[in-house]
Automatic annotation (TrEMBL):
Keyword Membrane: yes
Keyword flag rRNA processing: no
Record's protein name: TmpC_3 protein
Start and end residues of each ABC transporter substrate-binding protein PnrA-like domain: 38-356
Major place of residence: membrane
SUPFAM superfamilies: Periplasmic binding protein-like I
Topology versus the membrane: Lipid-anchor
Family of this protein: Belongs to the BMP lipoprotein family.
Protein source organism: Weissella cibaria
Length: 359
Protein backbone atom coordinates (compact mmCIF):
# COMPACT_ATOMS: atom_id res chain seq x y z
CA UNK A 1 0.00 0.00 0.00
CA UNK A 2 2.87 2.33 0.65
CA UNK A 3 4.18 3.69 -2.64
CA UNK A 4 5.29 7.11 -3.75
CA UNK A 5 5.79 7.12 -7.51
CA UNK A 6 3.34 7.32 -10.37
CA UNK A 7 5.97 7.74 -13.08
CA UNK A 8 7.92 4.85 -14.55
CA UNK A 9 11.41 5.85 -15.53
CA UNK A 10 13.18 4.02 -18.31
CA UNK A 11 11.30 0.76 -17.71
CA UNK A 12 8.71 -1.45 -19.30
CA UNK A 13 5.16 -1.65 -18.00
CA UNK A 14 3.35 -4.96 -18.26
CA UNK A 15 -0.36 -4.99 -17.44
CA UNK A 16 -1.35 -8.46 -16.29
CA UNK A 17 -3.60 -10.02 -18.91
CA UNK A 18 -4.51 -13.26 -17.13
CA UNK A 19 -5.95 -13.97 -13.72
CA UNK A 20 -3.28 -13.62 -11.09
CA UNK A 21 -4.35 -16.78 -9.33
CA UNK A 22 -3.91 -18.89 -12.45
CA UNK A 23 -0.14 -18.61 -12.42
CA UNK A 24 0.73 -19.50 -8.83
CA UNK A 25 -0.10 -23.19 -8.69
CA UNK A 26 3.28 -24.54 -9.72
CA UNK A 27 6.32 -24.31 -11.95
CA UNK A 28 8.27 -26.26 -14.50
CA UNK A 29 11.71 -25.53 -13.12
CA UNK A 30 14.40 -28.17 -12.90
CA UNK A 31 14.77 -30.35 -9.82
CA UNK A 32 18.03 -28.53 -9.14
CA UNK A 33 16.29 -25.15 -9.13
CA UNK A 34 13.57 -26.46 -6.84
CA UNK A 35 16.16 -27.77 -4.42
CA UNK A 36 18.32 -24.67 -4.30
CA UNK A 37 15.87 -21.81 -4.84
CA UNK A 38 15.06 -19.67 -1.79
CA UNK A 39 13.14 -16.47 -1.09
CA UNK A 40 13.30 -13.84 1.64
CA UNK A 41 11.57 -10.52 2.12
CA UNK A 42 12.55 -7.30 3.83
CA UNK A 43 9.58 -5.82 5.66
CA UNK A 44 8.56 -2.23 5.84
CA UNK A 45 8.25 -0.93 9.39
CA UNK A 46 5.29 -2.41 11.23
CA UNK A 47 6.20 -6.11 11.30
CA UNK A 48 4.81 -9.16 9.53
CA UNK A 49 1.80 -9.27 11.84
CA UNK A 50 0.57 -5.75 11.05
CA UNK A 51 -2.79 -7.08 9.79
CA UNK A 52 -2.11 -5.17 6.59
CA UNK A 53 0.58 -4.79 3.94
CA UNK A 54 3.55 -6.63 5.46
CA UNK A 55 1.36 -9.49 6.63
CA UNK A 56 -0.18 -9.92 3.20
CA UNK A 57 3.27 -10.05 1.59
CA UNK A 58 4.52 -12.53 4.17
CA UNK A 59 1.46 -14.71 3.56
CA UNK A 60 2.52 -14.88 -0.08
CA UNK A 61 6.08 -15.87 0.78
CA UNK A 62 4.85 -18.55 3.19
CA UNK A 63 2.35 -19.92 0.68
CA UNK A 64 5.03 -20.11 -1.99
CA UNK A 65 7.46 -21.88 0.36
CA UNK A 66 4.92 -24.40 1.57
CA UNK A 67 3.79 -25.16 -1.99
CA UNK A 68 7.36 -26.30 -2.68
CA UNK A 69 7.75 -28.19 0.61
CA UNK A 70 10.32 -25.72 1.89
CA UNK A 71 10.89 -24.76 5.49
CA UNK A 72 11.26 -21.36 7.10
CA UNK A 73 14.89 -20.34 7.32
CA UNK A 74 18.02 -20.43 5.20
CA UNK A 75 17.64 -22.50 2.01
CA UNK A 76 13.88 -22.03 2.21
CA UNK A 77 11.94 -18.85 2.91
CA UNK A 78 12.17 -16.17 5.58
CA UNK A 79 11.83 -12.48 6.34
CA UNK A 80 14.02 -9.76 7.79
CA UNK A 81 12.10 -7.36 10.02
CA UNK A 82 12.75 -3.62 9.74
CA UNK A 83 12.09 -1.56 12.84
CA UNK A 84 13.15 1.66 11.09
CA UNK A 85 14.06 2.68 7.55
CA UNK A 86 17.71 2.50 8.56
CA UNK A 87 17.38 -1.30 8.72
CA UNK A 88 16.57 -1.78 5.03
CA UNK A 89 20.11 -1.80 3.66
CA UNK A 90 21.35 -4.08 6.43
CA UNK A 91 18.48 -6.49 5.89
CA UNK A 92 19.07 -6.74 2.15
CA UNK A 93 22.75 -7.39 2.81
CA UNK A 94 21.79 -10.10 5.29
CA UNK A 95 19.67 -11.73 2.60
CA UNK A 96 22.58 -11.65 0.18
CA UNK A 97 24.95 -13.06 2.80
CA UNK A 98 22.55 -15.94 3.43
CA UNK A 99 22.47 -16.59 -0.33
CA UNK A 100 18.74 -16.19 -0.94
CA UNK A 101 17.91 -16.52 -4.63
CA UNK A 102 15.24 -13.80 -4.58
CA UNK A 103 14.82 -10.85 -2.22
CA UNK A 104 11.58 -8.88 -1.85
CA UNK A 105 11.24 -5.29 -0.69
CA UNK A 106 7.82 -4.46 0.72
CA UNK A 107 6.66 -0.93 -0.09
CA UNK A 108 8.13 2.28 -1.44
CA UNK A 109 10.34 2.93 1.57
CA UNK A 110 12.55 -0.04 0.64
CA UNK A 111 13.09 1.26 -2.90
CA UNK A 112 16.47 2.97 -2.59
CA UNK A 113 18.03 0.24 -0.44
CA UNK A 114 16.73 -2.46 -2.78
CA UNK A 115 18.10 -0.72 -5.88
CA UNK A 116 21.50 -0.21 -4.25
CA UNK A 117 21.67 -3.86 -3.23
CA UNK A 118 20.54 -5.04 -6.67
CA UNK A 119 23.28 -3.01 -8.35
CA UNK A 120 25.91 -4.67 -6.18
CA UNK A 121 24.48 -8.19 -6.57
CA UNK A 122 23.42 -8.70 -10.21
CA UNK A 123 23.02 -12.47 -9.81
CA UNK A 124 20.29 -12.09 -7.19
CA UNK A 125 16.70 -11.40 -8.25
CA UNK A 126 14.93 -8.52 -6.50
CA UNK A 127 11.20 -7.74 -6.32
CA UNK A 128 9.83 -4.35 -5.29
CA UNK A 129 6.21 -4.58 -4.17
CA UNK A 130 3.86 -1.63 -4.68
CA UNK A 131 6.33 0.79 -6.21
CA UNK A 132 8.42 1.24 -9.34
CA UNK A 133 12.15 0.80 -8.89
CA UNK A 134 14.02 4.09 -9.14
CA UNK A 135 16.45 2.41 -11.55
CA UNK A 136 15.41 -0.40 -13.89
CA UNK A 137 18.09 -3.06 -13.57
CA UNK A 138 17.58 -6.43 -15.22
CA UNK A 139 17.51 -8.15 -11.83
CA UNK A 140 14.66 -6.00 -10.45
CA UNK A 141 10.97 -6.65 -11.04
CA UNK A 142 8.42 -4.09 -9.85
CA UNK A 143 4.87 -5.07 -8.90
CA UNK A 144 2.15 -2.42 -8.73
CA UNK A 145 -1.62 -2.46 -8.34
CA UNK A 146 -4.58 -0.41 -9.52
CA UNK A 147 -5.68 0.29 -5.97
CA UNK A 148 -7.89 3.09 -7.24
CA UNK A 149 -10.23 0.51 -8.78
CA UNK A 150 -10.81 -1.36 -5.52
CA UNK A 151 -11.12 2.01 -3.78
CA UNK A 152 -13.83 3.06 -6.24
CA UNK A 153 -15.85 -0.01 -5.29
CA UNK A 154 -15.25 0.78 -1.62
CA UNK A 155 -16.61 4.27 -2.28
CA UNK A 156 -19.72 2.83 -3.91
CA UNK A 157 -20.31 0.59 -0.90
CA UNK A 158 -19.65 3.42 1.57
CA UNK A 159 -21.97 5.90 -0.15
CA UNK A 160 -24.74 3.33 -0.52
CA UNK A 161 -24.51 2.50 3.19
CA UNK A 162 -24.44 6.20 4.07
CA UNK A 163 -27.59 6.88 2.03
CA UNK A 164 -29.34 4.01 3.79
CA UNK A 165 -28.43 5.61 7.11
CA UNK A 166 -29.45 9.10 6.00
CA UNK A 167 -25.89 10.42 6.16
CA UNK A 168 -24.57 13.22 3.96
CA UNK A 169 -20.88 12.34 4.28
CA UNK A 170 -18.36 9.54 4.66
CA UNK A 171 -14.76 9.51 5.86
CA UNK A 172 -11.33 8.62 4.51
CA UNK A 173 -8.10 8.32 6.50
CA UNK A 174 -4.81 7.91 4.67
CA UNK A 175 -1.36 7.21 6.07
CA UNK A 176 1.41 9.21 4.41
CA UNK A 177 0.13 11.73 1.88
CA UNK A 178 1.93 9.97 -0.97
CA UNK A 179 1.03 9.25 -4.59
CA UNK A 180 -0.34 5.79 -3.95
CA UNK A 181 -2.45 6.88 -0.98
CA UNK A 182 -3.79 9.73 -3.07
CA UNK A 183 -4.84 7.13 -5.64
CA UNK A 184 -6.79 5.32 -2.91
CA UNK A 185 -8.40 8.65 -2.05
CA UNK A 186 -9.12 9.55 -5.69
CA UNK A 187 -10.74 6.21 -6.44
CA UNK A 188 -12.78 6.27 -3.25
CA UNK A 189 -14.09 9.78 -3.83
CA UNK A 190 -15.00 8.92 -7.44
CA UNK A 191 -16.92 5.88 -6.21
CA UNK A 192 -18.77 7.91 -3.59
CA UNK A 193 -19.69 10.62 -6.10
CA UNK A 194 -20.95 8.01 -8.59
CA UNK A 195 -23.64 7.13 -6.05
CA UNK A 196 -24.37 10.64 -4.82
CA UNK A 197 -22.60 13.66 -6.36
CA UNK A 198 -23.57 15.76 -3.35
CA UNK A 199 -22.16 13.46 -0.70
CA UNK A 200 -19.15 14.90 1.12
CA UNK A 201 -15.94 13.00 1.80
CA UNK A 202 -14.03 14.04 4.91
CA UNK A 203 -10.51 13.02 3.82
CA UNK A 204 -7.62 13.35 6.27
CA UNK A 205 -4.11 11.94 6.64
CA UNK A 206 -2.26 10.61 9.67
CA UNK A 207 1.01 11.57 7.90
CA UNK A 208 2.38 8.25 9.13
CA UNK A 209 1.80 4.53 8.68
CA UNK A 210 2.56 3.83 12.33
CA UNK A 211 1.01 6.69 14.35
CA UNK A 212 -2.00 4.85 15.77
CA UNK A 213 -2.78 7.62 18.26
CA UNK A 214 -3.22 10.21 15.53
CA UNK A 215 -5.24 7.85 13.33
CA UNK A 216 -7.60 7.09 16.21
CA UNK A 217 -8.03 10.77 17.03
CA UNK A 218 -8.93 11.54 13.41
CA UNK A 219 -11.34 8.60 13.21
CA UNK A 220 -13.11 9.53 16.43
CA UNK A 221 -13.57 13.10 15.20
CA UNK A 222 -15.00 11.96 11.86
CA UNK A 223 -17.46 9.62 13.55
CA UNK A 224 -18.46 12.33 16.02
CA UNK A 225 -19.10 14.74 13.13
CA UNK A 226 -21.89 12.53 11.82
CA UNK A 227 -20.24 10.10 9.39
CA UNK A 228 -20.80 6.40 10.05
CA UNK A 229 -18.42 4.94 7.45
CA UNK A 230 -14.64 5.44 7.21
CA UNK A 231 -12.28 3.93 4.64
CA UNK A 232 -8.82 3.62 6.14
CA UNK A 233 -5.75 3.34 3.91
CA UNK A 234 -3.16 3.90 6.60
CA UNK A 235 -1.27 0.63 7.00
CA UNK A 236 -0.65 -0.39 10.63
CA UNK A 237 -1.89 3.03 11.81
CA UNK A 238 -5.23 2.11 10.29
CA UNK A 239 -5.72 -0.54 12.97
CA UNK A 240 -6.58 2.35 15.28
CA UNK A 241 -9.58 3.22 13.12
CA UNK A 242 -10.98 -0.19 14.02
CA UNK A 243 -10.29 0.59 17.67
CA UNK A 244 -12.18 3.88 17.42
CA UNK A 245 -15.17 2.14 15.83
CA UNK A 246 -15.12 -0.63 18.42
CA UNK A 247 -15.12 1.91 21.25
CA UNK A 248 -18.34 3.33 19.82
CA UNK A 249 -20.02 0.07 18.94
CA UNK A 250 -19.49 -1.76 22.22
CA UNK A 251 -21.62 0.94 23.85
CA UNK A 252 -24.54 0.32 21.48
CA UNK A 253 -27.20 -2.36 21.39
CA UNK A 254 -27.43 -4.68 18.38
CA UNK A 255 -29.19 -3.09 15.42
CA UNK A 256 -28.39 0.49 16.41
CA UNK A 257 -28.29 2.91 13.48
CA UNK A 258 -25.47 4.74 15.25
CA UNK A 259 -23.11 1.84 14.53
CA UNK A 260 -19.71 2.89 13.20
CA UNK A 261 -18.40 1.10 10.12
CA UNK A 262 -14.83 0.64 8.82
CA UNK A 263 -13.61 -0.30 5.35
CA UNK A 264 -10.36 -2.24 5.55
CA UNK A 265 -7.42 -2.20 3.17
CA UNK A 266 -4.84 -4.44 1.46
CA UNK A 267 -6.13 -7.72 2.92
CA UNK A 268 -9.47 -8.98 4.25
CA UNK A 269 -9.77 -7.19 7.60
CA UNK A 270 -13.15 -8.66 8.47
CA UNK A 271 -11.92 -10.23 11.72
CA UNK A 272 -10.84 -6.85 13.05
CA UNK A 273 -14.49 -5.83 13.02
CA UNK A 274 -15.65 -8.56 15.40
CA UNK A 275 -17.10 -7.31 18.69
CA UNK A 276 -19.81 -7.77 21.34
CA UNK A 277 -22.69 -5.31 21.45
CA UNK A 278 -23.81 -3.67 24.68
CA UNK A 279 -26.58 -6.27 24.98
CA UNK A 280 -24.08 -9.11 24.56
CA UNK A 281 -24.59 -10.11 20.92
CA UNK A 282 -21.79 -10.99 18.50
CA UNK A 283 -21.54 -8.54 15.62
CA UNK A 284 -19.12 -7.13 13.04
CA UNK A 285 -18.49 -3.60 11.78
CA UNK A 286 -16.14 -4.21 8.81
CA UNK A 287 -18.30 -3.12 5.89
CA UNK A 288 -15.82 -4.41 3.30
CA UNK A 289 -12.08 -4.46 2.56
CA UNK A 290 -10.29 -3.11 -0.51
CA UNK A 291 -7.89 -5.94 -1.28
CA UNK A 292 -4.66 -6.12 -3.23
CA UNK A 293 -3.67 -9.65 -4.17
CA UNK A 294 -0.15 -9.07 -2.90
CA UNK A 295 0.27 -12.64 -1.71
CA UNK A 296 -0.68 -14.15 -5.07
CA UNK A 297 1.53 -11.74 -6.99
CA UNK A 298 4.51 -12.73 -4.85
CA UNK A 299 3.83 -16.43 -5.36
CA UNK A 300 3.68 -15.83 -9.10
CA UNK A 301 6.92 -13.89 -9.41
CA UNK A 302 8.75 -16.37 -7.17
CA UNK A 303 7.71 -19.20 -9.49
CA UNK A 304 8.78 -17.14 -12.50
CA UNK A 305 12.19 -16.57 -10.96
CA UNK A 306 12.55 -20.25 -10.10
CA UNK A 307 11.67 -21.14 -13.71
CA UNK A 308 14.28 -18.78 -15.11
CA UNK A 309 11.53 -16.48 -16.40
CA UNK A 310 12.03 -13.60 -13.98
CA UNK A 311 10.42 -10.38 -15.37
CA UNK A 312 13.49 -8.29 -14.62
CA UNK A 313 13.54 -4.68 -15.75
CA UNK A 314 9.75 -4.64 -16.00
CA UNK A 315 6.83 -3.29 -14.01
CA UNK A 316 3.78 -5.56 -13.83
CA UNK A 317 0.51 -3.88 -12.89
CA UNK A 318 -2.48 -5.80 -11.56
CA UNK A 319 -6.05 -4.47 -11.64
CA UNK A 320 -9.66 -5.46 -11.17
CA UNK A 321 -10.03 -7.11 -14.57
CA UNK A 322 -7.29 -9.68 -13.91
CA UNK A 323 -8.16 -10.27 -10.27
CA UNK A 324 -5.28 -8.23 -8.86
CA UNK A 325 -7.57 -6.03 -6.75
CA UNK A 326 -11.06 -6.58 -5.35
CA UNK A 327 -13.34 -5.87 -2.42
CA UNK A 328 -14.99 -8.32 -0.05
CA UNK A 329 -18.78 -8.64 -0.21
CA UNK A 330 -19.85 -10.88 2.66
CA UNK A 331 -20.98 -8.01 4.91
CA UNK A 332 -22.70 -5.98 2.20
CA UNK A 333 -26.49 -5.94 2.19
CA UNK A 334 -28.43 -6.62 -1.02
CA UNK A 335 -28.55 -2.99 -2.14
CA UNK A 336 -24.86 -2.41 -1.47
CA UNK A 337 -23.83 -5.64 -3.19
CA UNK A 338 -25.93 -4.80 -6.26
CA UNK A 339 -24.39 -1.34 -6.54
CA UNK A 340 -20.86 -2.73 -6.19
CA UNK A 341 -21.39 -5.46 -8.78
CA UNK A 342 -22.79 -2.94 -11.24
CA UNK A 343 -19.70 -0.78 -10.73
CA UNK A 344 -17.42 -3.80 -11.16
CA UNK A 345 -18.93 -4.57 -14.55
CA UNK A 346 -18.57 -0.94 -15.63
CA UNK A 347 -14.87 -0.88 -14.75
CA UNK A 348 -14.12 -4.22 -16.37
CA UNK A 349 -15.95 -3.25 -19.57
CA UNK A 350 -14.16 0.07 -19.79
CA UNK A 351 -17.33 2.11 -19.37
CA UNK A 352 -15.80 3.60 -16.21
CA UNK A 353 -12.18 4.70 -15.98
CA UNK A 354 -11.21 5.29 -12.38
CA UNK A 355 -8.95 8.28 -11.66
CA UNK A 356 -5.65 7.53 -9.94
CA UNK A 357 -4.81 11.10 -8.97
CA UNK A 358 -6.54 13.95 -7.20
CA UNK A 359 -7.41 16.81 -9.52
Amino acid sequence: MVSRRNLIIGGVVVVAAVGIGAAVAGNNGSDSNKKNFSVAMVTDVGGVDDKSFNESAWNGVKAWGKSHDLKKGANGYDYFASKTNADFATNFQQGVSEKYSMLIGVGYATNDALVASAKQNPKTDYVLVDDVASKQYKNIASLTFKQQEASYLAGVAAATKAKELGDSKVGFIGGMNSAVIQSFEAGYIAGVKSVDPNMKVDAQFAESFTDTAKAKTIASAIYTSGAHVIFQAAGPAGNAVFTAAKDINTGLNAGSKDKAWVIGVDMDQNDQGNYKTKDGKSDNFTLTSAIKEIASSIEKVANQSMDGKFPGGKTTTYGLKDGGVAITKKNLDAEEKSAVEKAEKAIKSGDVTVPSTMK
